[in-house]
Task: structure prediction
Amino acid sequence: MRNPTFRLLIMPCRHSEVEILLKKLKKEMIISHLWADVSPPELSLESTVPFAFDKMPFENWLQFIFIPKMLGIVALKSNLPERLSLMPMAEQCFHGLPHLSRVLLVIAEIDRKFSCFSRESRV
Result:
């Protein structure tokens, strides 16, 4: 059985690590010219398809849905997702674009971090 006190002690560290990774992702997206100056239409943000793939490019989903949602979770110190798997979609969308390799590295780092969180929570 997990010790809830221990979990509370390590949660802020996790949140700060996630916040750092999200800021790193934003920075790399800006450098790689993936950061949009204008938000997509409101209707696009209401997609129910994973990654809102039917309404916007993956980079817009990262910028306008994923990053703000995760920053909200971090700010409120809410429960983080048990697992993330962004890399398969990122690889599919950014395939053959070597100038996006640093963005892909950060996305891979985010996936790895959540994989570690998932293992820690089972201990």
The first helix runs from residue 4 to 31. The helical segments are 4-31, 58-76, 87-94, 101-122. The chain is about 65% helix and 0% strand.
